[in-house]
Amino acid sequence: MSTSSTDTSHPNLGEEKAHIGPERHSSDKSDDEFDRTKSEDVTYAPINSPGPHNEGSAPLQKQRSNASKSVTSRSLERSWSLNDGISIGGHEVDEAAVANEDEAYTVGWEENDPMNPRNMSKARRWLVVIIVSMGSLCVTCASSIYTTTYAQLMSEFGCSQEVATLGLSFFIWGLGIGPLFLSPLSETMIIARFFSGLSGSAFLSVAGGTVGDMFDRHELAFPMMLYTASPFVGPEVGPLVGGFINAFTTWRWTFYVLLIWSGVMLASIIFLVPETYHPVLLRRKAEKLRQETGDERWKAPIEKLQRSVSQTVLLSMKRPVLLLALEPMCLCLCIFSAILLGILYLFFGAFQLVFSEVYGLVIWQRGLCFLGLFVGMVIAILSDPFWRRNYVRLERNHEKATKKLDDFQPEWRLPPAILGGPLVTIGLFIFAWTIYPNVHWIAPIIGSAVFGAGTILVYSGIFTFLVDAYPTFAASALAANSFTRSSFGGIFPLFGMQMYHNLGYNWATSLLAFLTLVMTPFPYLFFRYGSWIRSKSRFAKSQA
Fold it and tell me: Where is the composition biased (Basic and acidic residues) (predicted)?
């Protein structure tokens, strides 16, 4: 059954509440009180309308659900599952229009509704998960596989390594932040890389939502873990594959392989991946009902929005900037994750330099050196069940101490980042001080594995914390994170080679380690004091 009474937030900074649904809560109850109260779900009987001239039968009789949930838990579930088509938080709604609307004609999901993507067969849903995960792997692999073409590009086009590196930077900038207005550059390769990243960003923007649309919260953990692993594993696969391609053929085959791969993914998406976005599907359902019954009162929640596309785009651009400017937690955690991505992409050039000059490895052997990062990240991903058990433990301890149920604290998401921070620093120091010809090459690779594991743990903690701490503005918080990560990810490779040449391999990597050391305390500080900080926030949800 679809829930038709929901708590959504007005987009203005005053956080005025707007309610859509048949039940109206009294105005004398504050928002804070409302968030802590239990309210019964309002559900509707299956839609079977007799038409506009036979209203007496009341086809949609309001029924009380036996299940009772808190508004808080529903909000969190919708943050996880991205959109259920009912919640339209963050959008302006014309209150007068809603009040005058016959709300029995608001279209929602029925039990076992065939149009609901969560009712697709398990095999179909997992096929979609695999396709979007492979597509994400393809997009992110395309970012790093380019680094294996540097030598051939510099030889064929007579450019410096700094210019060749721009192809990596522009891809990342295009991937994360859209069009950039930098100094004019006419090189076809660099411009093409930018538009490749820009195109890939569209896929990465919606693929996670596709996974969330198809699974309920209790089913979501494993498919989401599989999907979220792909953008991190992809960059390590790139040099591994690219090393063999560029060792035995020309650099052009690097892009031919990507073209073939992306072509297969495009065909798979077109023919095998259905529309899963709940608001769009409910709009289609409402249109079908209006056609069948001739009754124009059937409306989907998204059809009640009172904002133009241009207003929505401008607001979407403004909120991430406001979060970075006004939210210290969001800013610090975004900078931490941005530094890690910057170091990761700097490594794609540094590995080629270090393992060729210190250990004399050829290009395909240097590609294999990225297996350390790959293995470390996979180990961290496989630790996910442990962190979920830890989350449950923190929840139960909190319930025993406070006697409150469904009192979720976003800070419980941060323990992976608390452990990951020191691992990142330790891994970088191991890498820095084992880069010697008389030390076996496996030693720095082990250091990179520790760094890779720590990076995944930090990202896992930060991403889930941002979603839970800013449930109404989760998309904006993640967009702010994407903006900072893309900026750092594109900039770091531009100065990485000069830094390694001028400071030496040991101290250059140590400088990066000290940079992460400065950021390491923040997840712990926010774990301890985050609830108090959120209570002072204009954007974050506090349950302190």
Answer: 13-41
